[in-house]
Specification:
By secondary structure, this protein is of the alpha+beta class. The chain is built from four helices and nine strands, in the order ββββαββαααβββ.
Amino acid sequence: LGTMDAARDLTQTPMFAWKADKAGKRGVVWTAPYPSPLCGKWVISALAGVQQNGKLIAVVGAEVPASALQEDVLTFPLGSGSLSWLMRNDGVLLAAPAGAEVQLGLKPLADADMPDAEQAGGKLLEAANIYIKGAEKLSAPLAAMQSSAEVAFEVVKFDGKNMYLVTAPVENTDLKLGALLHSPLAD
């Protein structure tokens, strides 16, 4: 904080995005990715309201670097050539691994440039496709899967071969994990 301009208004950043009507069942709001004024990286915040006698007295949270999600959360084995990603229940992409662009049509935001005078943050998010429309052949099944809170499973064809598109809620969060599998590992 000591390195920041003292006149900087942080209240307009997503760090202050908690609202009761936006919070999930557990009272947490996961923001869309944004460039952190604190660490200078693309981050996601998890924010929770603190209540006392039914009144909101504080909001607490943490900024999670998109690179940490990309490198740590999404590294479990799914089989050769398979990919996973993390998204909010409304379909906003939070993290996708390197290589996601070829099959999913998604760019890993952790590798994206930071906004500057020539590149607006919104344009960089759009280029990364954080609203997870994905590649044309995946956009329709992904849209259907996002509207469900349950595990969803669909076969899609890539180069004449079956692949398996899966999304599932992450227990005790308002997030979903998605995967594009080369073999039916969903079970």
